[in-house]
Hints:
The protein has 218 residues and is an alpha+beta fold. The protein has one domain (2-217): Heat Shock Protein 90. Helices cover 50% and strands 22% of the residues. It has 6 helices and 7 strands. The strands form 2 sheets. A 5-stranded mixed β-sheet has the order 2-4-5-7-6. Strands 1-3 form a two-stranded antiparallel ribbon. Helix 1 packs antiparallel against helix 2 (38-64), helix 3 (75-92) packs parallel to helix 4 and helix 4 (112-129) runs antiparallel to helix 6 (186-196). The longest helix has 30 residues, at 2-31. The termini are far apart.
Amino acid sequence: MSDVVGGAVEAFGVVHSLKNHISSLRVLIGLIEPGLSGSDYEKYHRLIKRELEDISQLMLCIQNGRDPDRQQVNLKDLLKDLYALMAPRSQLAGVDTELELPGDLPEIPGNLLFLAEAFRNVWENAIEAMEQGGKLKITAGKSQDTEGRPVVEVTFKDNGPGIPQAILSCIATPFVTTKQHGMGLGLSTARSIVGKHGGELAISSGPWGTSVTFRLPA
């Protein structure tokens, strides 16, 4: 029975990820106005192509029914690319996003597509939480885990309304959500991906907003 439930959660997680990509495509296509040309057209065309490629890769992973391949991932490039992809969505929602990355951020072993999905889920959650707009700061840096092993921390900190303390401890559990029409899968999917990479997800929240930190082995 647990395998059936786990399979259902994974399937819903994939649907959730595809929904995020489709939402982003809708925003990007809306920005390509008739007559748009030059660098803006090239930028949006490139981002739309990237979204379609990511959707194709997600579908291939489902079809193959296996864990995605691992490689050395340049987190700095990943986050900068994701910033370019999410910027139109953030701006449309009135969210001012700041990306602060050090020059010496190390590469980590992992899967580029799935790590991007994990970061994206948290990013989408932050945007949706700040219904009236707000600020989102994304930082990254080197650190150590409790046993002194090197890790990379990536933190998403927003100034939204925060998560009610009554559900904070279980907010990354599948189908637990604060949103009226939410699926409750963004954080649970992110935590699952981080766990498969040998890392952990730390969440804190209060009246000041919410902070979500990824800790990934370097």
